[in-house]
Amino acid sequence: xxxPPVSTGKTKVFALVGHPVRHSxxxxxxxxxxxxxxxxxxxxxxxxxxxSADKVADSIRTxxxxxxxxxxxxxxxxxxxxxxxxxxxxxAGAVNVVINLDGHLTGYNTDGEGFLGAIHEEHGFVPQDKxxxxxxxxxxxxxxxASLAAGGARQIILLNRTLSRAxxxxxxxxxxxxxxxxxxGVLCSEDFERWSPDSDLIVNALxxxxxxxxxxxxxxxxxxxxxxxxxxxxxTTPPQIQACKNRGLRVSTGLGMLVHQGALSFELxxxxxxxxxxxxxxxxxxxxxxxxxxxxxx
Length: 298
Known about the structure:
Helices cover about 40% and strands about 20% of the residues. It is globular. It is of the alpha/beta class. The strands form two sheets. It has a six-stranded mixed β-sheet, with helices on both faces. The protein contains 13 helices and twelve strands.
C-alpha cells in the first residue's frame, strides 16, 4: 500500500462534505490515488450540520478547497450557490462534485455515469430500450434516471414515499429527455407490483431508513432477466439483495458505483485519468470495506 506524503502549505485539499461521513471509503480511495499519481494533495471527510448548507459554497472559496464531493443532504442544497453547473448536473437537479477555480465554483454530477459504468462492468447492462424502476427521487436517483434515459431507456418509473417529489423529478427529467417515458408512483407494494413485470433493472437509491419498506415489496413478478441494484455500498445486508440472489436474479451493490464515480471525480479533481482496476485494488485492501457502517454515498 502506498503511504501518502506529509501535507504542507502547498498541499491541495480535497474533501467529502455530507452528514454523516464517519465511515466513508472516499478518503481511503482518493488519498491512495493522489499518492499513486505523485500529486501533493490530501482528501478529508467533513461532517457538516445540514443547517449550515447555505454556508458550504462560501466555505469552499474561503478555505481554498480545490475540489469536493457532496453527499446527502447537500447535493441539491448547494445548487443556488454555485457559479456554474454542467448539463448532467442540471438534468439530475443535483451535484456530487464541485471544482473550485480561483473562487469560481462549477458543479458536476458523476453519479449517473458512475452507475452505468458499474452495471455495465458487472453485468454488461446497456440501457437501450430497457424498462427501469428507480426507488427514490433524490439527487442520486435523478442522476441515474437521467443517464439511463440519455442511454436510450424506453421507460423509467420513479417510486417514492412522497409522490409529489417523484412527480417533480419526472417532470424535470422529461424537459431535457423527452424521448423516454417517465412514470411515477408511490413506494408501496401495490405500485411496485403494477410496474415490476417485464422490468429489466430495479435500482434502490433510498437511504437505510427505507429498508423495511423496500423489503416489504414483492419481487415475485420480476422476470429472470431483471437486475436488482442497490447504491448504498455501506450496507452489510442491503434490502432484497439476498432474496433476489435466492431467486437466481443478478444483483449489484453500491461498491461498483463508488469505484466508477470515484474515478470520474478524481479525473475532474486532478486531470489524471485512473483505471477502475486500481480503485478496485485500493478498495479491496481497505479495512473499512470489511466492516462497513451506515454512512454516506460519497
